[in-house]
Write a structure and sequence with these properties.
By secondary structure, the protein is an alpha/beta fold. It has two domains: 185 residues, Aldehyde Dehydrogenase, Chain A, domain 1; 130 residues, 3-Layer(aba) Sandwich (Aldehyde Dehydrogenase, Chain A, domain 2), CATH 3.40.309.10. The protein contains twelve helices and eleven strands. The strands form two sheets. It has a six-stranded mixed β-sheet, with helices on both faces. Strand 4, helix 7 and strand 5 form a beta-alpha-beta unit. It is globular. 38% of the residues are buried.
Length: 354
């Protein structure tokens, strides 16, 4: 396949996927609809049967994010920065996918295929229906992908390199079994937000999207706040009130109530509660579901140094303040672009250099 054929195939997939965003209209002129539209709609609506965390709203949000990423001009610009060899025999790249949020392995599949290689996806039991369906749509959009896309739940074999995403515990397993291959192995990371007390209600409301989207289960979800000493959380709690419907999800509610009980039994004086989100002072980064850690700071310059020192634990930093280095604007953490590589490791560079 030529690079241009790959670009066109993914661009067609992107146009198809944008129809499934919340409130989007069906494109009557989209010829892929004849084969896939109704079945995909049904799969989206039933995703929570297979995984109760995968609400229809969250699945549609993930699909919308992917569709927005697959613009033809942006794909072409992105790929042009890498030495893709169209004449090289494709290598078989195994991608072990997490299942914490819908379609979390899509960018790896995109990178493997755009780099001229063959993709073998090791499916998570938590998300084993959406990715194979999108693979079928992509093959219909560009038949040249037919021999370059595969999925399995079985043992991986005949592979040339591995990309694996999981927890710190599973990373040790991956290192043991796949360390002999060229690899990218990702561990736990979390995202943080820095508040200064000068944020508008709208900026705090947008921060709520970074906290609650996907119930906070993604590595790009904000799991901790850094706040100035003496910070008053009243405006923050007022701004996020619209996210209170998270407790309608039984799994979220069970986690929230369990953690509240544990913290109340310990009589933690730092604990704040609004009946759907617990705020707890903690120096850690990985807060449990239903909990948001917070930590006070005294000097924003010193905080920048701390964030730099902890960069191997942090996926994204969100802040409305221009004083925070490389910060994303509130509300954009779960809208990654093509060059927003997980853990800051350039997947395309790794694949094109194999």
């Amino acid at each position: 396949m030529k690079t241009e054929e790959r670009i066109q195939g993914f661009a067609r997939l992107g146009r198809f996927l944008t129809q499934f965003s919340e409130g989007a209209a069906k494109y009557e002129s989209e010829d892929l609809n004849e084969f896939f539209y109704d079945d995909f709609n049904e799969l989206i609506s039933k995703a929570n049967i297979y995984n109760p965390w995968f609400t229809e709203e969250n699945v549609r949000n993930a699909i919308s994010s992917i569709g927005g990423m697959l613009k033809e001009s942006e794909l072409r610009t992105w790929v042009s920065d890498y030495p893709v060899n169209e004449n090289k025999k494709p290598l078989n790249i195994a991608v072990i996918m997490a299942g914490n949020i819908p379609l979390v392995g899509f960018h790896d599949m995109l990178s493997v295929l755009m780099s001229g290689n063959r993709f073998t996806g090791k499916l998570s039991s938590e998300d084993k229906h959406l990715m194979p369906f999108i693979g079928k749509v992509l093959i219909k959009a560009e038949p040249g992908f037919a021999n370059l896309i595969g999925f399995t739940e079985d043992k991986l074999k005949d592979i040339d390199a591995v990309i694996a995403t999981g927890s710190n515990n599973s990373a040790r397993y991956f290192e043991y079994y796949f360390g002999k291959y060229p690899h990218i192995i990702r561990k736990n990371r979390n995202s943080v937000a820095v508040l200064t007390g000068k944020e508008s209600i709208q900026q705090l409301r947008m921060l709520g999207e970074d906290i609650f989207r996907y119930f906070g289960l993604g590595c790009r979800n904000v799991s901790k706040l850094f706040v100035p000493r003496g910070y008053n959380f009243n405006d923050f709690y007022s701004a996020i009130v619209d996210h209170g419907n998270v407790v309608q999800n039984n799994k979220y509610m069970n986690n929230y109530e369990y953690n509240r009980t544990v913290y109340l039994m310990s009589s933690d004086p730092s604990l704040l509660d609004n009946n759907f989100l617990l705020l707890k002072a903690d120096t850690g980064f990985s807060s449990p579901v239903g909990v948001l850690y917070y930590e006070h700071y005294d000097d924003i310059k010193e905080l920048n140094k701390t964030l730099e020192e902890k960069r191997d634990q942090i996926q994204c930093v969100v802040s409305a303040s221009s004083e925070i280095k490389n910060a994303l604007s509130p509300g954009t953490a779960q809208c990654p672009g093509l060059t927003d590589y997980a853990d800051g490791v350039d997947t395309m560079k790794f694949l094109t250099n194999l």
